[in-house]
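The freezer alarm interrupted the setup, so I double-checked each line after restarting. Inputs confirmed:
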Amino acid sequence: MAIHQCRTIHISILIGILLISGCQNKQHISSNKPFGLVIHGGAGTILKKNMSEELESEYIEKLKESLHAGYTVLENQGSSLDAIQAAITILEDSPLFNAGKGAVFTNAGTNELDAAIMDGKTLNAGAVAGVKRIKNPLYLARLVMEKSPHVLLTGEGAEAFAEENGIELISPDYFFTEQRWEQLQQLKEQQDKSVSDLMQQNINTESANHLFGTVGCVALDQEGNLAAGTSTGGLTNKRFGRVGDVPIIGAGTYANNQTCAVSATGEGEYFIRSVIAYDISALMDYRKMSLQNAADRVIMEKLTDLGGTGGIIAIDNNGHIAISFNTSGMYRGYIDMDGEMSIKIYKY
Amino acid sequence: MAIHQCRTIHISILIGILLISGCQNKQHISSNKPFGLVIHGGAGTILKKNMSEELESEYIEKLKESLHAGYTVLENQGSSLDAIQAAITILEDSPLFNAGKGAVFTNAGTNELDAAIMDGKTLNAGAVAGVKRIKNPLYLARLVMEKSPHVLLTGEGAEAFAEENGIELISPDYFFTEQRWEQLQQLKEQQDKSVSDLMQQNINTESANHLFGTVGCVALDQEGNLAAGTSTGGLTNKRFGRVGDVPIIGAGTYANNQTCAVSATGEGEYFIRSVIAYDISALMDYRKMSLQNAADRVIMEKLTDLGGTGGIIAIDNNGHIAISFNTSGMYRGYIDMDGEMSIKIYKY
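Predicted 3D structure, all chains:
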């Protein structure tokens, strides 16, 4: 049975913090050019009882900083692509989220990052999977989109492309964080299980430990162009070169000016099998559903019925925002077409 | 402007060969349990004037062998998954197609293979990308689907998973064929171009030389279960760990018992950006289109308008077959629910 946990976006914010600083310039409201953006920092079992006030504040401040960075681009008539890059770079550079600096460790003790970006105007897209020496994978995904005829580059090949295009390769040590290393050690202590038990337990533990820290952003700019981007470190203790939904166009990331832009977070395998991001667009296009109804149909019914957990953020070509997830929490925020900012963490 | 090149499947076969041997047992016709399968061996610029009679015969014989292998499984009440595996293994083991034995070479002189499989009953899926020592990548994709909670495994990680699951890793030398090596050398001679020119030319040359030899199969079994599978060696002279549409669920491969099973071949980047395989399913589901109309809308209109070339094979849950492509040829064949076999190469 699907549980509706986030059917509508309430202007009231449930963690009790309404942040509208920096959004006082309402010029855009009378410009008849709606614009706005939504970000997420991952969905999962995120409970207030397990969160210190200090850590909660850190998350809120970082989400706020990210929203401001993206919104400033849009406000100054920048592109939705530039806005999502600005917003996601800040989340990638923070150790709080499972992307960039805060990426989780693989079974081999490495960090392997995935990212994707899509331009709703042209349907161009770029993605990278399994990169180990790229500080900001979303930017590399953008270069793949803009500087190559390809969509998806992987591993050392993607890093060679990065070097040829002027991106400095960093030491893998950059991604070391004590917290992520300890998470890996905890999982490894249970390695006397069979491989398939381990892989299953890996996913379950991720869920239980609310480690779905994938980050993403969707934006509508004043030109009416939509864009979506997503960046992740994948699963703690992952093996076998596993790639999730993030770099899969249509699964974790999708944008189309005719409909909407979507970025997902959750159990990637379910998002791939359900073609989550594109399905929301298809329901809008073929069934004429509203963005929120399409998002809820896909997350609260189809994904939930299949047994998957996670959520999405989305914005349509009129500036309407939708957030839908079936977990107990999701780091998320937006600045809507009225210039109002909302940041939330828990379900309610 | 979209050009309709294959709107319907004519029972008459255009290369003048009707092969119904092995399909004389018509028991299934009265069983009210329609079943059938479709295969492809790639789409591209395939012109009769460039094809020797001998080579044409080799292609036809191999396609026939593949169809028989898959059909025998279905006839004996085997599963659609077993049928597509039987059919694709034969194409992978042939040097004629750009998959398995006949895989093209990368810029580094290696062979990096991709494959995917999807089960329409459960929406389970498995895929591998960039494997170098796997004789039959489609079989490995099936093991990923059945023996791991993951969907997509890549590179050496996927090979480690293969070994742990009893698949023998072969020497990369297995994939050496003189023809593919010469194709690589021809492309390399033009390497004084810039990287992006080279990458673009790479795609164009593939098209011009009709090297889209990706193979695929879709099937409906007597239990009413659909399945789809695709296997490829990617692009000649590819660099940067490029991955195309084949292992991307929803792009090159998709199956859903509620609608259809689809396998694609063509310029992979366009197929990813257009979420081709899932889009056909979505048009059937949300717009109640017939399989052929949905396939033509996606290939002849949407893909063509975006500038992409290639095609798809598909079968729906009633056993109807559709093939749609916007190139001058496509290696293809089917045995339909009446037990009739058709094999074609050229557009007409």
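Quick read of the result. Chain A has two domains: 1-32, 34-346.
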